[in-house]
Design goal:
This protein is of the alpha/beta class and about 450 residues long. It contains 21 helices and nine strands. The strands form three sheets. It has a four-stranded parallel β-sheet, sandwiched between helices. The protein has a three-stranded parallel β-sheet with strand order 7-6-8, with helices on one face. Helix 12 packs across helix 13. The longest helix has 18 residues. The protein is globular.
Length: about 450
């Protein structure tokens, strides 16, 4: 569940983003919410106004971190400085341009920051809107226009509106992912807004190769697109060799130094990243097994780690572990694993909602008998049995409001993943908003437990 503190941060981001739009109504359309809900949120009334999924969507769009940790700091690396100066120049003079360079050097961060801090600037991740219809409708929505009408009307309204704005700019990142028809539509929109709208295309080396290939084979539209961008592929990374390695390591060092906690060896992080900025981010935010942090005993004692308040025989067996652990339970065939985890699920109902994902047995006769024998009707309001799902289904289920606080998977090898690690990565990617929305989702992983019989008391 999205906490009130996180909602407050999102509301502040919405307030800051408002200056980029002419009216509240257009801002609401861009955020994908109704004007009435927008008005309530603007007043600070956030309770039951939006689903958690919508809050996360807005946070992602506005770059709001949902982690409990510190906000990621934007660093003015050479790539950032070069690209933002390019975008500023093109926007001010309603020019167009291209930036083609190797991946993972900070192009996207610079472009998103520029769009976030300038009025009438829209950033588009073309890998998510590859077709002409999805592209044009997305841009229209970002400018606060109606994007669900007949496509021809959406297109005409967008072109007309761009001609009325003060120095609008459209940044097309991952432009190489667009299908051919989308390129033609960009050329048409370009023609309709020439001299009053800046278009800036970005991509890696593959985008440049795609354009050159199209020009070589005289494909309609490709030569015109390059021409409108000044027939120049801008870049900043030095050629292969020591100079490039120094450049990449230098950028990684700058970002690591700005974002690592006190006491962490940021130089080690930069070296281990091999100059990859995405790797730097991963090592700092997820650990990666190498990030060092020096704690004093007092700091360790003051760490706020929520416990699972087990009691009775459960506390005697397991103590009071962290609420956000993953447990992995194994044992010989017919040793009582399923009975134990169902009893565990019944106990966890004391602390929240439980989804029991029954993959091995489904809802067969033996499962039915176990449900009855263990008295699971006693926790019917908090205990749900789920069958026949995939990782994607599970992620979608947990995205819903009031989803489970704990998930038991019996048995994990029947899920459509090759290993538990892949399952963990699949879900932590989506539920990284906070510890309460990510780590707590799985109770089968991390802690190992063995028991000789099906008796809960013996297991305890």
């Amino acid at each position: 569940m999205i906490s009130n503190d996180i909602k407050t941060r999102i509301v502040l981001a919405i307030s800051g983003n408002r200056q980029n739009y002419a009216t509240d109504a257009k801002h609401a359309v861009a955020l994908g919410i109704s004007t009435s809900v927008y008005s309530e949120i603007k007043k600070g009334n956030t309770e039951q106004k939006l689903s958690d999924a919508k809050w996360m969507s807005i946070a992602r769009r506005l770059g709001v971190s949902l982690d409990d940790g510190a906000e990621w700091k934007i660093v003015k690396t050479p790539t950032f400085e070069y690209l933002t100066s390019q975008l500023e120049l093109c926007r001010a003079k309603s020019l167009s341009g291209m930036f083609c360079d190797i991946p993972n050097i900070g192009k996207t961060v610079a472009a998103q920051y520029h769009a976030k801090t300038h009025k009438n600037v829209v950033y588009v991740d073309c890998s998510q809107v590859k077709t002409k219809q999805r592209l044009v409708r997305f841009i229209a929505r970002e400018f606060g226009l109606n994007s669900v009408s007949r496509y021809a009307d959406v297109y005409d309204d967008l072109v007309f509106y761009l001609r009325t704005l003060d120095h609008p700019q459209i940044i097309l990142d991952e432009a190489g992912d667009l299908v051919y028809e989308a390129f033609l539509e960009i050329k048409a929109a370009w023609n309709g807004t020439e001299g009053c709208c800046s278009w800036y295309l970005m991509g890696a080396d593959g985008f440049k190769a795609k354009l050159e290939r199209g020009i070589e084979f005289k494909t309609v539209g490709f030569a015109e697109i390059r021409s409108r961008c000044g027939d120049k592929y801008n870049s900043i990374t030095p050629p292969e060799g020591d100079e490039r390695r120094k450049f990449l390591l230098g950028q990684a060092m700058m970002i690591a130094q700005a974002n690592t906690p006190e006491g962490t060896d940021f130089r080690q992080i930069a070296r281990r990243s091999n100059g990859s900025l995405r790797r730097v981010h991963s090592l700092i935010t997820k650990g990666g097994g190498i990030v060092m942090r020096a704690y004093s005993p007092s700091e360790i004692e003051n760490l706020n780690i929520t416990e699972l308040p087990l009691d009775g025989e459960w506390e005697a067996a397991f103590g009071r572990p962290s609420r956000f652990e993953r447990w992995f339970i194994d044992g010989e065939s017919a040793s009582g694993k399923s009975t134990f985890v169902m009893l565990l699920g019944k106990k966890l109902c004391d602390y929240g909602r439980v989804d029991y994902v029954s993959l091995e047995e489904g809802a067969n006769l033996s499962f039915k008998k176990r449900i009855k024998r263990l008295g699971m009707k006693d926790v019917a309001g908090k205990f749900k049995v789920v069958t026949g799902l995939t990782v994607a289904d599970l992620v979608a289920r947990l995205e819903r409001p009031k989803s489970a606080n704990f998930v038991i998977i019996d048995s994990v090898q029947y899920l459509d993943v090759r290993s538990f690690d892949r399952l963990k990565r699949s879900c932590s990617t989506v539920f990284r908003a906070s510890r309460s929305s990510s780590c707590r989702r799985f109770t089968r992983g991390g802690r190992r437990a063995r028991w000789p019989t099906t008796s809960a008391s013996t297991a305890a």
